[in-house]
Task: inverse folding
């Protein structure tokens, strides 16, 4: 304990049992969280060392993934991870921020406010493997005609070229967008609620419409926190495993079109880890996990800092 | 509450045009907001609808009592249901008490501006953001690689690490809601910190603490990725912790990507069981704790 807490408890040393040991114990226990984080980083690093020694940075830029012959380049997975997460963010960020504004700025009738809030949180409660199942049998059939039409109309753009087999980076992006919406909505909602009422009233008093107030006063004030929620959501999208594995097509190749199948870092772990052929294969997969861990840790800390800037240390973390 | 630009000053035509344009922009944005809100909620209802429609026909007593059968025979997922219950219970046994104690430290024992507490809070949220598949790899390195066998224990370990930050955060939030008068009362009666925390403060926050635990449990029950290469899967009844163990989620995944219709039907049934479990917990929790969780 560094400082004694300013409660009367300090005065009660003579009553009851001495609770110093208890306080010490609990404080020590609390370090478990930090120990876990460090242990995770260190253990993954040690187990990835053989692959790091063998491939170094070329692991991140090589695109040949051939466990049988010992070629390990993770670029196709990195590409698929980044592209599917980008699609997810482009879809989820405007939608999530819009819904958060709708909930906090009084557009929804009071009767609907609570149910909509709860429903968006329910989205976070659905297990990711269930999203994957829904993705395979419902979302892909829904999106297939859309992808086909788009490829027919705009196929000259490499990003939107056919063929459209179904499982693809695009579908994964849409599914991830649904899954990260609750994170963006919950945190943006809290951040928007933390904006001082005087800003709203002042802007309205000057004759601004409600939307002018939102765009010129409220969003700028809440921007860092909203940015934080988007970055946190990005971290979730990058690490999402089951849903991606089930709808991305698991093809380790880099193709320009979003409608082509791909692969992600998390998905290759899910598919190959239990049956890794050689020690080097296992090590290479752990290297991939280490990359994923590094990126998500960095994004998380950045996002938390941004949220703290706006809403102080008591902000609540939303969707999971 | 729709505030539009004022329509006074009617005399000036350019001003009137300007006002009309601003009102039109307001209307357009509000409509867009409605569209986005409906779009955001569509997946929820679609998932619930499909899981119910597709899952109900295959949900029978056999599902809970039988083992997976070869294609062509009527099997069930009894062992997977049991496995999920066992692994989640074991994970809770570790993470719930430890999580509550850590939350107690953050909320009750650490000084209000304590740097240590701040760092631990940051660590907790960071841990919550680690992808669950990476936690699975970590559990593999610690518990599978060393023992040379896939095991329920490794699966539980991964789930416990995933649950811990969730328990800490929700418990801390609910401890913060306990009024200071409770603390003052306990201390003025001569309780020490241990007595105050376990005799007064935690009981006062009981509902919130239970909520946190239940939400973490429902989250762990729905996890697949960290179990794929820790607990792996098992075709038979197994309660041994040092053996591979089936789980509802891994079994669902295996069936979902298999080419057989009847396996798909079983996958939907498993999804229905999972969703019911998760929603009952989540909705139940809301009734238990009428605060802003």
Result:
């Amino acid at each position: 304990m560094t400082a004694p807490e300013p409660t009367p408890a300090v005065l009660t040393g003579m009553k009851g049992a001495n609770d110093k040991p208890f306080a010490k114990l609990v404080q020590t226990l609390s370090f478990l969280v930090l120990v876990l984080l460090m242990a995770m980083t260190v253990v993954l690093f040690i187990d990835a060392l053989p692959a790091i020694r063998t491939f170094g940075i070329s692991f991140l830029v090589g695109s040949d993934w051939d466990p049988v012959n010992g070629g390990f380049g993770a670029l196709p997975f990195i590409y698929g991870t980044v592209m599917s997460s980008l699609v997810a963010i482009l879809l989820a960020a405007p939608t999530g921020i819009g819904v958060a504004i709708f909930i906090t700025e009084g557009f929804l009738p009071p009767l609907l406010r609570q149910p909509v809030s709860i429903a968006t949180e329910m989205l976070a409660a659905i297990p990711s493997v269930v999203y994957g199942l829904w993705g395979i049998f419902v979302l892909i059939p829904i999106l297939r005609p859309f992808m086909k039409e788009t490829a027919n109309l705009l196929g000259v753009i490499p990003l939107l070229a056919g063929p459209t087999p179904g499982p693809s980076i695009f579908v994964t992006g849409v599914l991830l967008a649904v899954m990260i919406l609750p994170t963006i909505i919950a945190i943006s909602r809290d951040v928007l609620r933390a904006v001082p009422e005087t800003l709203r009233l002042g802007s309205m008093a000057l004759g601004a419409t409600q939307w002018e107030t939102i765009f010129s006063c409220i969003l700028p004030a809440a921007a860092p926190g909203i940015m934080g929620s988007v970055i946190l959501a990005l971290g979730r999208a990058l690490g999402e495993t089951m849903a991606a594995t089930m709808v991305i097509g698991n093809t380790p190749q880099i193709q320009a079109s979003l409608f082509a199948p791909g692969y992600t870092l998390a998905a290759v772990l899910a598919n190959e880890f239990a049956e890794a052929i050689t020690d080097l294969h296992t090590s290479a997969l752990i290297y991939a996990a280490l990359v994923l861990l590094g990126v998500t840790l960095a994004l998380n800390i950045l996002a938390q800092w941004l949220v703290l800037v706006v809403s102080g240390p008591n902000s609540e973390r939303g969707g999971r | 509450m729709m505030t539009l630009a004022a329509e006074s000053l009617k005399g000036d035509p350019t001003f009137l045009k300007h006002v009309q344009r601003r009102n039109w922009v307001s209307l357009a944005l509000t409509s867009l907001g409605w569209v986005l809100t409906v779009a955001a909620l569509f997946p929820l209802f679609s998932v619930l609808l499909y899981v119910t429609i597709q899952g109900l026909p295959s949900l029978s007593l056999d599902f809970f009592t039988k083992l997976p059968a070869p294609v062509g025979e009527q099997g069930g997922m009894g062992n997977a249901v049991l496995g999920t219950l066992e692994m989640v219970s074991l994970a809770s046994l570790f993470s719930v008490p430890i999580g509550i104690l850590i939350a107690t430290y953050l909320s009750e024992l650490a000084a209000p501006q304590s740097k240590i507490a701040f760092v631990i809070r940051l660590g907790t949220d960071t841990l919550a953001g680690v992808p669950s598949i990476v936690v699975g790899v970590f559990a593999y390195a610690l518990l599978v690689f060393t023992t040379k066998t896939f095991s329920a224990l490794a699966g539980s370990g991964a789930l416990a690490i995933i649950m811990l930050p969730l328990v800490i955060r929700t418990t801390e939030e609910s401890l913060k809601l306990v009024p200071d008068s409770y603390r003052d009362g306990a201390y003025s009666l001569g309780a020490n910190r241990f007595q105050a925390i376990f005799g007064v403060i935690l009981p006062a926050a009981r509902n919130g603490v239970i909520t946190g635990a239940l939400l973490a449990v429902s989250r762990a029950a729905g996890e697949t990725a960290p179990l794929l290469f820790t607990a792996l899967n098992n075709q038979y009844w197994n309660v041994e912790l040092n053996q591979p163990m089936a789980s509802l989620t891994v079994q669902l995944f295996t069936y979902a990507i298999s080419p057989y219709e009847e396996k798909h039907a079983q996958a939907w049934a498993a999804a229905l069981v999972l969703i019911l479990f998760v929603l009952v917990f989540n909705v139940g929790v809301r009734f238990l704790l009428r605060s802003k969780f």
